[in-house]
Amino acid sequence: MTKETKVLWVVVVVAAVALLGWYASTQKKSASVTPPVGQEQQVEEKTPIKVGFMHPLTGDAASYGEAMRNIAQLAVEEVNGAGGVNGRPIELVIEDGKCNGKDAANAMQKLVNVDQVKVVIGGFCSSESLAAVPIAEAGKVALFSPGSSSPDLTGKSMYFMRDYPSDASQGSVLADESLKKGWKKVAFVQEQLDYPAGILKAFSAKFEQGGGTIIKEEFPTTTTDFRSILLKLKAAKPDALFIDSQTPASGERVLKQVRELKWTIQLFISDAFAGDAKTVEANKVALEGTLAAEFGVDENNVKFQHLASAYKEKYGADLPFQSYAQTEYDAVYMTRDALAAVGENGEMLSTWLRSVSAWEGASGSVTIGSDGDRVGGHTLKVIKDGKVTIMTE
Prior knowledge:
globular; four-stranded parallel beta sheet; alpha/beta; 15 helices; Rossmann fold; 2 domains; five-stranded parallel beta sheet
């Protein structure tokens, strides 16, 4: 063998060894990223299912949003502890809708187009849901609200549904009571948001049909001085004054100045105000005899009792905003059932949720109609000694 031949063989051997090393390396890398046969489904089952959550977490309405977030997280922990959805855990993707259309639209755009969720629990404020509906529709994402109650949301889109009843029933119940008492003129001091506007719209339709007259003064959420508008309303000599506020905080500000003006008059308040037990108790003297219409709570309901107990154990406080708390809790469990039944498909989730009938939850038996509204409504209540109780007279 010549010297040149030996050199050639050495080059061939080195090249062969290098080639074998490269092949072994690529096979090792391939094995590290490709699951063994039969394990693909196991990996998929452990991937969290992202569920959007869009509620007000800043501003006056944050008292609702923070409480509802706690309730939703509690329910999700329970669901995941029981095996999740077909073995996969639910993961909440939380966004702040800030109780207004602009911020809710931005939050919804992120949930749909960035996070790519197929179902969103929210909005809570009606303004949030009204702004989010077109985005949900464009992205074919189910939008399931446990709190938005504006009548303008009824039949808005096949992608919107709610397990909290429309304010059409709240306004109607209070208008009926006004006509029953023979009142001819009711004054509204109304916050300029969709939820209060919905109450006024429903009340006016029934009251004016019965021969009554509505007088109204509106105020932006940032208002702190109501004296001028209250004096205008007082001068009109109405039979009753409706403090039509989005939140207990704004309603309490109006109430304080009604008292400062020494205006003694029959009061109505929205269920958003009446539903805050702490604020009602703190203003029990000023609110004595005030009327409201609320979506009821059945304290004998076993699931509601569990919710109240679990909330207190986890957060060290009594369950707040109970009429909303129960529908928030149910919304998580109904979303779980929908996902288990039809998977992550926004159109199919919407169809499933709109076909719910006699679903038993903390808020009682839930049936959702083809228009997206929960069947059922509000009950007339009166405030006595700082407590909101059913009107029996």
